[in-house]
Sequence to fold (131 residues):
Amino acid sequence: MKNHFYSLICVLFAVLIFGFFAESALAQDPTIIDSTHYKVEFENEQVRVVRITYGPGEKSVMHEHPDGVEVFLTDQNVKFTYPDGKTEEITAKAGETNWAPGVKQHLPENIGDEPLELILVEMKVKSQTAK
Fold:
């Protein structure tokens, strides 16, 4: 009985550890796990500026972003796939800017015929109220 209890505790511990690392792996920084498409151009305590580039048909891996501002340098035709399997197609024109609410998990794919490029200014801190 004592060995059975010990085994059960070990299994539960392993499940908890695996769950922690699996969640951490899913919530990774795209500049680290996909440096082919994501490059940090500037960073300080308030913002991080990321250049995003994809060739036609290229896609990333599941990752997340905090709130930010997107500046589209080229026309965009992108499909986003979410962890639940749902997809969403987004288009934008070169020169447009958008507020981009943070996203927990998504996998982008350039479904256009041309390369795409944009700048994402990620917010690091919440705005402070006036003093």
